[in-house]
Amino acid sequence: MPNDDVADLLRSVGVRVSHAALHALIAHATSARLSPTQTFEALAAISRRERDQRNLAARAKAATLGTFKPMDRFDWNHPRTIPRENVDSLFTLAFIADGHNVLLRGPSGVGKTMLAQNLGMLAVQRGHTVRFTTLANALADLLKQESSPALERRLRKYTAPSLLILDEIGYLPCSRESADMLYNIISRRHENRSVVMTTNLPFKQWSTVFPGAACVSALIDRFVQHCHIIDIDADSWRQKESLALSDARARARQQEDAESPAPMPSPKKR
Fold first, then answer.
1. Are residues 34 and 119 in the same domain?
2. Which positions ≥6 away from 23 have C-beta within 8 Å?
3. Are residues 102 and 220 in the same domain?
4. Which of 125, 151, 206, 270 has the most Cβ atoms closer than 10 angstroms to its Cβ?
């Protein structure tokens, strides 16, 4: 039977391996004269590898992590203070196994979101389900649900994943109803599934984010019971990059001006 027909036959009976991989396997099995057992072992290995790749791609898509810089681009010398040993410990992901939470706290532009996204991607690669969102987007998504059953179904997007990452706590004020929604999420995940939050505010100022909400103290109490708090003190990295880019452009213009020929003097009128 031609190789194309064999590959099509295997896929038709549910072997979920790419056409190219099947062709390569058939060619290798033929040239190396593999036994049936060796051929089936190779097919199983390829199937498992491609299944794992599909699962990883699906989890990464569901995590909605967006684009971000990898950790090897993080400048550890930029912050004035950052507990690097504690950050490195987070990347063992032991906090997920323990059902603990993480708070990344510091001014805008110091790398909180980047750290959170890298934690999320590592968790995806280790087989965990992850959901990344800003607090504002999560609350808007939940509050637009028009019925209790619809809300309950949508809540599972934020309560079911092994790791929930809520970005930008404190950047926009929220209603009391929003505070109750966040409390609901934190309570359902408490001591069971991990939450990573990023914020620019100390806990005593969280009441300004949810003005008039009675549940803020209880929300904080549940979140911090088992929480790794990472405080980062630094100037904005984005502002630093912007200033460096402006300086580079200014130097380039100065160099161009210095290298350009001087204008010819205009002839004198007689």
1. no
2. 3, 4, 7
3. yes
4. 206
Is 84 found in the same domain as 58? Answer: no
Q: Where are the strands (E) in the chain, listed by range?
A: 101-105, 130-134, 163-169, 194-199, 227-231
- Structure-token pair, residue 157: 């997007």
Ordered mean pLDDT values, 10 residues apiece, the chain (270 residues): 70 83 90 93 92 93 96 94 97 98 96 97 97 97 95 97 96 91 97 97 94 94 97 83 61 70 61
123 closest CA partner among 100, 155, 94, 89: 94
Is 34 in the same domain as 136? Answer: no
Please check whether residue 6 is in contact with residue 13, taking contact to mean a CB–CB distance below 8 angstroms.
no
Which pLDDT value is given to residue 266?
A: 62
For 51, other C-beta atoms within 10 Å of its C-beta total: 12
Q: Is residue 114 part of a domain?
A: yes
Closest CA relative to residue 191, chosen from 158, 155, 224: 224
According to DSSP, the β-strands at 130-134 and 163-169 are parallel
Asked whether the whole model's pTM tops 0.70, one would answer yes
* Three-class DSSP category at 81: strand
Q: Quick one: tokens of 166?
A: 């809520």
Instruction: Please state whether 138 falls in left (phi above 0), alpha (psi between -120 and 50) or beta.
Output: alpha
Task: Look at the chain and report how many structural domains it folds into.
Answer: 2
β-pair partners for 52? none
